[in-house]
Specification:
binds iron/sulfur cluster; alpha/beta; about 15% strand; about 375 residues
Length: about 375
């Protein structure tokens, strides 16, 4: 009989809150309770943890500047314990090695000199008190010492090293370390036993589609274990910035299915790159690298786990056995949540929500059954 996931989660989180609360002053507890980490809903690839605010690299394609972040960087104002406490208050967060994936580096550079200490502090606190799978994405040059430090804290962390272009980095990423240094980061990570992935993101049509072979070849030479590719999202400001830097924006607009006059201020639009991703996947696989379409899969892989979507996407031999998905209804059944199980298809558990917070239902099922979830 499946134990009840929701009640178990509540119990675990209470226990955790009591434990870490006793390590803080009243003011520290209050500050952590007000922090956005205590409320932020997870994204499809996990919950983003901010180790800094802002980023000075000024990448032409970066949307953080449209979200109000500045081109200066400061470390995040919580201590490691406060971060753990804030996460434990987040109603969507599931603690533990089989819990919510944590992603560091989505709106800042986690290993910039201004944020590195804080990033290490957060990784230490998460590893000590929570044990959740951690992933970071970076453009920094990491030294042997940096990587050795990381390894001593948590050797399973999933590193993604971001590269979009091998020839236009100076122009499009004016504040970031040169791509050569990032390849060296891949090498150092691999030498210390990590499983670094080339994060081919964002795919800039007209540039990345022409350069991906060279980028992949070089990443392979430096020890990358695989490739994760990600699409570009544009705003009016990003498009103007790319144009200023000589990028052919017509190709991008065509893929966004919009003309510049139709852009609303600060709205992000997806640029369709499925065909380019397919080419990248084929090439990476031909070269003997893994190709994972989602960053969370690299996180799972790094932590020695697997998810059923990988099987549905044909990522063999990582997932072989058919899934055993039983007890879905019992797992959630409580005063707060109720669902009807409707089957499993292509890596997705399908449930009809009868009662309760949809996002909590999705998160509980996703992490318990290592599967994506479709709610009806
Ligand atoms: S390094 Fe990342 S966060 Fe910083 S500007 Fe570039 S894309 Fe944005």
């Amino acid at each position: 009989m499946e134990s009840n996931g929701f009640r178990e989660l509540e119990r675990l989180k209470k226990q955790l809150q009591e434990k870490v609360k006793s390590l803080m002053t009243v003011e520290e507890v209050e500050k952590a309770s007000r922090d956005p980490h205590s409320k932020r809903p997870p994204r499809p690839c996990g919950l983003t943890v901010h180790t800094g605010i802002g980023c000075p690299f000024r990448c032409a394609y970066c949307y953080i500047y449209d979200m109000g972040f500045k081109a200066q960087i400061t470390e995040y104002p919580l201590t490691g314990i406060q971060l753990v406490y804030a996460l434990s208050l987040n109603k969507y967060f599931i603690p533990g090695p089989n819990g919510t994936f944590l992603a560091l580096g989505s709106v800042t550079e986690p290993f910039h000199p201004s944020t590195k200490k804080k990033t290490i502090e957060y990784i230490e606190a998460i590893s000590k008190y929570l044990g959740n799978p951690i992933q970071f994405s970076t453009k920094m040059f990491l030294t042997d010492e940096d990587v050795e430090k990381l390894r001593s804290i948590n050797p399973d962390i999933s590193p993604l090293v971001s590269i979009s272009t091998i020839t236009r980095d100076r122009l499009l990423e004016p504040g970031a370390p040169r791509v050569e240094k990032r390849f060296e980061t891949i090498e150092t990570l691999r030498n210390h036993g990590f499983k670094p992935f080339l994060f081919l993101r964002p795919i800039i049509p007209g540039i990345t589609d022409k350069e991906y072979r060279d980028i992949i070849d070089t990443a392979l030479k430096y020890g990358a274990v695989g490739v994760v590719a990600g699409s570009l999202r544009i705003t009016r400001r990003i498009l103007e910035k790319l144009e200023e830097n000589g990028v052919d924006t017509d190709a991008i607009l065509k893929r966004a299915g919009k003309s510049l006059t139709g852009f609303e201020n600060n709205v992000q639009y997806d640029v369709r790159t499925d065909d380019i991703k397919m080419e990248i996947a084929k090439y990476a696989l031909k070269k003997g690298l893994l190709y994972l379409p989602y960053a969370c899969m690299a996180n799972i892989f790094s932590h020695g786990q697997k998810c059923w979507r990988m099987k549905a996407l044909g990522i063999e031999p990582m997932v072989k056995e058919p899934p055993e998905i039983t007890g879905v209804e019992e797992y959630l059944d409580s005063d707060e949540l109720k669902v009807k199980y409707m089957g499993f298809e292509n890596g997705f558990i399908k449930v009809k929500v009868l009662k309760g917070d949809k996002k909590i239902i999705e998160e509980l099922l996703k992490y318990r059954f290592k599967s994506c979830v479709r709610l009806y």
